[in-house]
Amino acid sequence: MKNGRAVLPVFLVVLTLVFLAAAADAPTLTFKFTTIEVKGAQDSRVFGTNNAGVMVGAYVDSSGVDHGFMLKGGKVTTLDDSSGTTTNCFGINLAGDVVGYYVNSSGAVQAFLRHGGKFTDIGPAGATSSEALGINDKGNITGYFVDTNGVTHGFLWNGKKYTQLDVPGSLSTLAWGTNNNGLVSVQWTDSSGNTAGAIYNGKKYTTIKVPGAVSSYPHGIDLAGDVVFSWTDSTGIFHGALRTGGKYYKFDDPKGTDGTYGDGINDNRLVVGVYHTNGGGTAEGFKAAY
Q1: 184-237, pLDDT tens digit by residue?
Q2: Residue 57: which residues within 8 A CB-CB, separation 6 or more?
């Protein structure tokens, strides 16, 4: 799913598709999908959205290079960290602060915060690589880092202090999103190599998993604690899901013939993500109101 020079023209595919998502243990919920494309890009991916509906993500240009972008009011702005290449943007808050990662000159993945138009490297000291995946309106940032032993840990940064997050018994942990109440959505790998989810409230981890999924990947989390997921079925195909009110609603973008990923969510009943076509070779972003 990891996959911003001059700003390319952009258009939004205005065809909105309505899809009734079958829930595993709840009534159906209606999702209205709109495709998001960066004009001229090979791929376009949407990873996060704030409460004003501003979206961030990444696109692949005609030369195969990844660029971060922000979509606001129908206009795309390319966001590239000048310290390296292959920029991806994953989260944005209401103030317009953006987090993500770039690849530095050594080939390592480096987390960043873009605040006031300026990119700053972030991440715990000693990390060999890191990604910033979420940011709330208080400026708290979530992500992950890899230590010198090659172990992946989640982190939560409040601007002054890093808190390492590890689900007990996990082989690896990633902290994806954080809401304005301080809840953190976490994905972790178990001893069988499958990925499960949890919500961390500052004291304990509560497991969350999409019913029937082989692996569950919780991503964005909103103020109510609702979580958007990507999940895999027994054939390895990815789908989206929304956990709201303690119930799970599965969804697929109707255009996503080869998989759908749920990535971001805001407090105004909007989820964003990516769908795949052409045997998984082509990716486009989407937003879906519900």
Answers
A1: 999 999 999 999 999 999 999 999 999 999 999 999 999 999 999 999 999 999
A2: 36, 44, 45, 46, 47, 48, 68, 69, 71, 88, 89, 272, 285
β-bridge partners, 16: 34
| DSSP β-bridge partners for residue 78 | 69
Q: How far apart are CA 187 and CA 173, in angstroms?
A: 6
Taking a C-beta distance cutoff of 8 angstroms, is the pair 130, 110 a contact? yes
Count of CB atoms situated within 10 Å of the CB of 145: 25
Domain 11-289 coded CATH 2.120.10.30: yes
Single pTM value for the model: 0.91
Helix, strand, coil % (nearest 5) of the chain?
0, 55, 40
Ramachandran angles phi, psi of 279, nearest 5°: 65, 25
